[in-house]
Specification:
single chain, alpha/beta, 8 helices, 34% helix, disordered N terminus
Length: 222
Amino acid sequence: MARSVVLAGSRRCERCELSPRWCICAGRDDVVLPFQVDVLIHQREQWRPTSTGRLIDRAVSGARAHIYHRDLPLQPADIVQPGKVLWILHPLGEPMPPAPPLDQLQVLLLDGSWGEAAAMMKGVEGWGRRISLPMAGESRYWLRSQQGAGLFSTVEALLFLLRALKLDEAHHRLRLQFELQVYAGLRLRGKKTAAEEFLVDSPIRTAMADLIADLSRRRPHA
């Protein structure tokens, strides 16, 4: 059974939410984007260290996280910014249109399981344009099994958007943050072999070589 710092009640870093032994804050980077990013996080996700919605909140400068409670409906004013064009990313949306000037764009991501995201979508329906991104390949989110072919984690959806908008530097920097979280999460669960396999095709293998080596050294469990 995979170990869980949530279920075990272990002490966690207040920022990266991993146990101190596998804290990745030494590799933290602030990713600056030219548009506003908001994440609606299902209440069941908010304390999970594997939540990539929380990762976006930590890594993207100016990003805002909102917690979805089924019994506490959100109001548009809680999220929608006046004067912005709101895109709500969802696999069942319309194909991605030409983007407005990026300083006028606001992007809302839904963080939860497929069923949870469907419920959240109903709560924000009509607030903006529901947009489907061009997404292909296999998910790098090895911490959870995706629920079908062509499905990706929340942060991967944002990465696909950055690539579509040709924001290559931001894409690279955010991908490093994502892959570092996945690697550390695998090591936290004792999946050393899977973590080594993950590194083979990961940019953190060279970009964060010193940090990876440091994480691999035996250290006291704090």
